[in-house]
Amino acid sequence: MEPAKKLPMTFTLLLFISMSAAFIFGFMDQYINRDFERLHIFLFNLTSGGFTILYFTDKRERPGIRSVLFFLLSILYAFLAFFELYLPAAFTAVVLAIIVETYRREISPFFPVIFFKTGESTSRKFHNASLLCLVLALLLSSFVILNNTWLKFFYFEKLTLNVFFLGFSFPVSLITMSAIFSILEKNKSRALQVLEHIFFWSICGGVIIFFLFILAQSFSGEVFISFYLFITVLCIFAVFFRYGKKMQQKYFLVSAIYFLLCTAITGILYILLKELPSYDLYGKIVLRMHAFYSLYGWNLTGMMVIIRWGDFPITLNTRGAIFFHWGVILLFAPMAKFYPVFTIPAIVSYIVFLAVFFFTGNRVRTAL
Asked: Which residue ranges make up each domain of the chain?
């Protein structure tokens, strides 16, 4: 992480707009009889999240032409997928993957040997893994589009474009993990280095295996790996809480991990409910909670911290902001999906929270 790096206000405003638009599209089905899920999630995870990852990687103060091109093309991809214009969407995904790969090759060889070195920075490992995962997700999404629409090489019930909601969310999770491990104490014991290496492979390997279990529709496999990832996140939280440097970013990232734990719990509940007769009654509620906690709790917090990293400490009541965020995302937003009367207040609350975090002043220390 580059402590002195600050995202220019123009790009902060663009991200604010894309994140706000993504959230609004998540509720548009209540007013227009159409599924806006692809716009909702692709604009958030791919457009906003992908741009944040590239900004995290870029060495320059201002995002370059490649980052801007990625931002614009990812919006195009989201709308092409939404309108089911699959051939141009597949082509756009390949172009996006090439852009990300040019960034990845600037910090890593083609084969990421850093993944296998215990003594290397865990933050760098997660950073490299985030870029690699984004490249692979884009290429796989292009292949899935072509396979399901024209090629018909093979058929998996779960191998659809909508499954890549997870595929585009994972790179953002990894870049948040990179931010978390970047503020751990630098002078680590050998045992702690080994433990962080295990954490890295547990997260990356666990999610890949989880994705394979989803494709194979293995109930027992999904349950097992979900519990394994939950325990891994608990262990990461304990290490981060103990060894993380005391700084304002840490408090927001602790909040992010709380959201991740909520995401894991609701994910396990959803998997269990799928096999029960009560799924229709409770499954959809749990799934909505899971989606909001993942996107607008865990992923959003990580992106906000990275985007404003060079501005910390910011003139913000940290506890107040975190509690307000929890109220909006843990309760208000999921309720709005089932009780439309809460929709407008939920949208307004989310936008207000985002605006306060992005556009408040900096360099003045406040009580934590």
From this structure: 1-179
